[in-house]
Amino acid sequence: MVTAVLIIGLAVAVFVGFNIGGSSTGVAFGPAVGSRLVSKTGAAALFTGFALLGGATVGTEVIETMGGRIVPADQFTLAASVGVLFFVGLALLISNLFGVPASTSMTAVGAIAGLGVASGSLDYAVMFEIVSAWIVAPVLAFWICAVVGRYLYPYLDAWFGIDRSDGALFVLDRSGSVPIPHLAEDTSRKEGFWSAIVLAISCYMAFSAGASNTANAVAPLVGGGAISITQGVVLAAAAIGLGSFTIARRTLDTVGNDLTDLPLLASLVVAIVSATIITVLSEFGIPASLAVSATMCIVGLGWGRATRTTTVASAATAAIQGSEETTTISTNALAADDTATGTTAGDVAGDVTGDTANGDVAGAGGVPGIGEEEPDELAANDLFDPATTGRVVMLWIMTPSLSAAASFVLFELFPVYGGT
After folding, report:
1. Which domain holds residue 151?
2. Which InterPro entries match (predicted)?
3. Contact yes or no for 187/206 (Cβ under 8 A)
4. Per the domain annotation, does 84 fall within a domain?
5. Helix or strand run (H / E) with residue 171
């Protein structure tokens, strides 16, 4: 009987890892695929390798948190582990069917929390620490990229901008016994260098995904002693790779093409910010979501770029006087946020950074100053898709909630956890 339950548990862990690969590959390599730096198959291969590396190093800290800190390790019987992992996989499958990068860590922690509430063993202090990180990380990701998009991006683009050539970046010289890659005829050295940097950062994101997400597939089994940490990492990496090569293709399209116009420089900004946030949290053993942070980086960058058509003074004048002209400008510039608090948040960002210091007059290097760019030249809808973003956020909320509620009901009706 125990052997049969263990086999089921391993199968469910593979099912969860499969869905993690489907979700997180798009987050890590969506920008690179959207910029045509790498094929979907190449992205899947790179993601699998670096996710394994991340899980085997930094990821062990997260496994220990999810396998014994949220609820005591002795609560994870084989039956309880199967129940937790099943609801994680089910919630992730729903998100992947919608083509949205799911919040894997939030969904997994939600299922474990449901077990903890039903068994009365939930460590609320640890949960508060984790949930606080969930709130801070995406907000920090959004505002860092929003500030970059509003105040720094045009200057970075002028200094490091890359004109993407048509066709392949590299060609293989097969004249020798070993094929050697060379830059394609139409590819400049500058384009080749920055393309390699973007690809390297995508691999860094895959490392971060492995560090934070490996635990989501195997932590209950490791915590309960059914498998070792090493066995868990290998099992999770294999399952993640399977998902990367299959169902990740739709998520790659969503992240790389639907959320915002994402040139090479933007890909680099998104990757560096999101991967760094998640790697730091993983070092502290906090299971944070790369999907949430990376997507909020994309949204924040697009929103920040869209707000360059107005200054803080113009937005304030429109709000106070209701001037038709300034209202039109502000509406076009702030179309990425329909709420009243969105304008206030944009004003706060402008006040903190300083519109005057950053270009209310014409910017350096021929870059138009803030408020001088024409709305039709920097259309918000081309930089930021509110409908797609709304769908993503809705499923972020739905999947962990569904996982936690279903897990609680199961263990309340069938108390198969430890100590019963």
Report:
1. 1-161+188-309+380-413
2. Phos_transporter
3. no
4. yes
5. strand 170-173
